[in-house]
Amino acid sequence: MTLLGAHRTARTPLDRVPVGAKLAGLALLGIAVVATRGVPASLALLGLAVVTAAVAALPPRPTARGMLPVLVTAVLAGAYQAWARGWGPAVEVVADLLTLVLAAAVVTATTPADRLLDALARAARPLRRVGVPPDLVALAVALVLRTVPEIARTVHEVRDAARARGAERDPRVWLTPAVLRLVGRARDLGEALAARGIVD
Amino acid sequence: MIELDGAVVTAYAPGETRRGAERVVTLLGPVTATLTERRVAVVGANGSGKSTLARLLNGLTLPSAGAVRVDGLDTARDGAAVRRRVGFLFTDPDAQVVMPTPVEDVALSLRRLGVPARERDARAREALARVGLESRADLPVRALSGGQRQLLALAAVLATEPAVLVCDEPTTLLDLRWRRVVDALLADLPQQVVQVTHDLDAAARADRVLVVDGGLVVHDGAPGPALEAYRALMAVDDAAEVVTPARGRHTGVTTSRAEDDLA
């Protein structure tokens, strides 16, 4: 199960790579994406992410569906860049966003959430000195990753409901209930964590 | 043992002000009761305050007056210790399950207990096996049915081996088959179980039933008389017209087991 919502049962070489190495690789890729300039470099990094996703045996269709909200955001950002700075920067923005999200999906797909939490908690250990509990930092990061498909699903459901009433063209009709539902969901999640004693 | 000692829950009424100050409304109480029975049911109309009563028991809601104690631990002062003793099962398992797969969600509960990483997976699978979900351990949670998700939520709570389990309408969203499965699992638990429910069959199997109405415990006793009182409370004035529940009359006097009939 990836945190983008795509289920996979395959066990690939990437599943056996230590989680610390995968997170370090993701961080390096992030630096490379920011540090490199030009369309060829961006497309090459996107190609690398796609190849890694193929090696990780991410199922293409569910992964593409999970990435749809990111694609929409990337296209909107790209459209603005195309208008403001031209086609080159626009392609770069779209490619860079897709690269990072796809690479993150590979890490979460090939790493059990429990081990990811352990690694994040280890990485956050220095924060204990300033009074921040590492376990909570790790849980917060994992929950943020988990929330992406939740948001996509909620928006999809609310838009369906608006469509059923013939009102999907007006964004206010689905945006307001979607935001309200997401806020309510976040509150429920907080309560559930409190009830389980996880945030004590 | 759970003790409610004049527990009151209040809230600010949003948007309602009186001379510039927000109006405070009483949601529950005062409630005084000592719960020692293995199976306690709490029944009442929607919005009567029974969920608020349940939430008091593991410190999810704190009393604004009075006190709630579990085995002598005060929910306001010793919240973390109380939550280690009192597990809580919500109506909607989707609100409770936070990880992508069942085995990971149960493992999350075990992290809290400090179970070493190498033991977590095996113990999580054992907990899932106890509710019959061993074959679903690695599936995405979304692939489970509503009933299976509720069993998963139950497994995640029971994995921490609480002394008391509080369930807030655990079967309301389930079909009859899953309701029976969850009921059977709850019936076999060695823990004390306090169950908020609309299912009168489940309430009839309890050792003690609290009837909540208008924020007060209006009846407290053995299932027979308590459920009779509840049915009378739920009678409608005129079934043919718009349904208007016949409200119980509150005297403001808190009932407790000692004060009420248990015959």
Pick out the low-confidence regions of chain A.
1-7
Strand order of the largest sheet of chain B: 6-7-8-3-9-10
Q: Number of folding domains of chain A?
A: 2
The residue-averaged pLDDT of chain B reads: 83
Order of SSEs of chain A, N→C? HHHHHHHH
- Gross geometry of chain B: globular
The H/E string of chain B reads EEEHEEHEHHHHEHEHEEH
Largest sheet of chain A: none
Gyration radius of chain A, in Å: 19 Å
Tell me how many strands of chain A there are. 0
Number of domains of chain B: 1
Structural class of chain B: alpha/beta
Outline the low-pLDDT stretches of chain B: 240-244, 246-263
CATH superfamily of chain B: P-loop containing nucleotide triphosphate hydrolases
The CATH topology of chain B is Rossmann fold
Mean pLDDT of chain A equals 83
Radius of gyration of chain B, CA atoms, in whole angstroms? 19 Å
Cα distance, first to last residue of chain B?
21 Å
Q: For the record, what CATH class of chain B applies?
A: Alpha Beta
Shape of chain A: globular
InterPro entries (chain A): ABC/ECF_trnsptr_transmembrane
Organism (chain A): Cellulomonas pakistanensis
Membrane topology (chain A): Multi-pass membrane protein
Subcellular location (chain A): Membrane
